[in-house]
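User: Just a sanity check before I run the rest of the batch. Below are the structure tokens for the first item. I only need the designed sequence back.
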């Protein structure tokens, strides 16, 4: 299962606590005396370790399961129910640790992590493939990794037949690029690195890649899409253990991002929107 670390949570500390909870459950499996009390003590300690690092819903999935509720309110006379629950908790914690490590490895591949919101695709005057992200983000030759939450893709899908014609063109173009570059669920290259500007004394450009951040299984989106985008970006930042930049034209969204601890690049819409690159 994929858990959602709380903002500011250390990936290293979370993995350490998850392993500690799992190992103590394994040890408890062989407890011979007063197993019910030992099990209850384990759940209390597990909650203490994890409550400040993951959401309450994740604590419920990891520790406070329906079988936990039965055991806690009806102390069993035999070992079978508690043993079965401990075996299940160890298996779930093993899966959670493995998936968190896999997710961390995904974001350890380098590059500046950038989450563009829907307003970027609607308002940016330059086509996605022609945008100089190195200059826009002031990161020179550093590779740029554009991470697009699935909610942004869904918003774009909903806008492709609505609004002014120019906006529909931009939305349709953006959807086509997303599908072509990252539509198979893999990270794809949007543009190559270019160091030739150095010969002219100008700024080089790093490689730009694009990937779609799918919703995890059983994920429940937040009611407000802007909150959902920020939440998903914060999740990447926490798992990666490094900064994520929110790229937006929207003032309210920029404020949400800053409050949540993201880096924010707030762009300003051109006064003459008719001057565009290829739209």
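Assistant: Here's the designed sequence for the first item:
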């Amino acid at each position: 299962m994929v858990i959602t670390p709380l903002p500011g949570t250390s990936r290293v500390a979370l993995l350490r606590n998850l392993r500690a909870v799992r190992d103590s459950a394994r040890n408890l499996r062989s407890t011979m005396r007063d197993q019910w009390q030992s099990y209850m003590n384990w759940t209390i300690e597990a909650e203490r370790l994890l409550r400040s690092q993951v959401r309450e819903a994740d604590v419920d999935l990891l520790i406070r399961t329906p079988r936990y509720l039965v055991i806690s309110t009806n102390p069993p006379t035999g070992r079978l129910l508690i043993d079965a629950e401990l075996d299940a908790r160890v298996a779930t914690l093993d899966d959670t640790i493995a998936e968190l490590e896999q997710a961390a490895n995904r974001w350890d591949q380098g590059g500046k992590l950038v989450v563009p919101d829907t307003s970027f695709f609607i308002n940016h005057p330059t086509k996605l493939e022609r945008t100089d992200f190195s200059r826009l983000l002031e990161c020179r030759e550093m590779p740029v990794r554009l991470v697009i939450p699935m909610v942004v893709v869904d918003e774009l899908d909903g806008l492709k037949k609505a609004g002014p014609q120019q906006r529909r063109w931009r939305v349709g173009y953006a959807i086509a690029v997303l599908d072509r570059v990252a539509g198979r669920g893999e990270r794809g290259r949007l543009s190559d690195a270019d160091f030739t500007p150095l010969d002219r004394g100008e700024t080089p450009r790093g490689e730009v890649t694009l990937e779609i951040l799918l919703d995890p299984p059983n994920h429940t989106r937040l009611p407000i899409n802007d909150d959902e985008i920020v939440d998903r970006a914060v999740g990447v930042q926490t798992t990666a253990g490094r900064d994520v930049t929110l790229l937006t034209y929207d003032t309210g969204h920029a404020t949400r991002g800053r409050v949540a601890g993201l880096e924010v690049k707030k762009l300003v819409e051109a006064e003459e929107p008719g001057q565009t690159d290829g739209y």
